Known about the structure:
Elements: H1 3-29, H2 35-62, H3 67-94, H4 99-125, E1 134-136, H5 140-157, H6 167-181, E2 186-188, H7 197-216, H8 222-275
Antiparallel strand pairs: 1-2
Amino acid sequence: MKLRDLMFVLPNLFTVSSIFCGFYAMTLVAGDAGPTQVYQAALAIFFGIFFDGFDGRVARLTKTQSLFGQELDSLADVVTFGAATALVVWRWALHSMGMVGVIAAFTFAACGALRLARFNVLAIRSPHGGASRFFVGMPIPFAAAGVISMIIAFQNAQGGDLPDSLRWPVLVVTVFLALLMVSTVRYRTFKDVRPSPRSAAIALVVIVIGVVVATQIHPAWVLVAYFGLYLFSGLIESALMLRRHFAEKRQASLADVVDEDEADEDAADVDEQEVL
């Protein structure tokens, strides 16, 4: 096998490793799994996020991007961040809630699949091949990160079974993340980030927030805090963009009204001159 052929295999190995992490997570929570197995499954998905984040970068670095790799990446995301994450959160918090818990976990997996299908369609239609400053809807790896960060933080900070009083809040968060995936809320891809005073200031603020959370609450909650920052940044930025859109639309409507009034005045002047 030639070196060039091996380079095409390399990014796909990262993708397959992500699938293995998802499959391993599902084997851990199959059957009567306890808190230890759930925690290990969450860690497996966390490593799956790591592999998923590097397969595309490796492909671009080695210039081995391919349609096969893109489709394989989407299938890997459905397995690891859709089905596996939904099963893990069901075993951790939703299994005692009957059919309501099953539907909530399924909603997460289904919305993840829908989000990936929409992303693939938009990538095909896009002249840039899907490269953009924003994701439309929360990416499924980030949604999975939100779920497993709660599991990792809880098991490190408290451990044991999840109290019944927290099961409904976890269900609400799970469904909310599912809906964010199929929403039109825009989240930054960070592909346009360049070293600058502004980016350095933002990075410093993020680091300070992490240090404060780690020292004042618990180090395990840093992941949750960072995910919360990303979640609310998309909501706030989308709200500002929507507000700007309505403001521009209102200004355009006012300009049209002014133009119509001026046109009516000009027509009246012409009629008056014809009468004279």
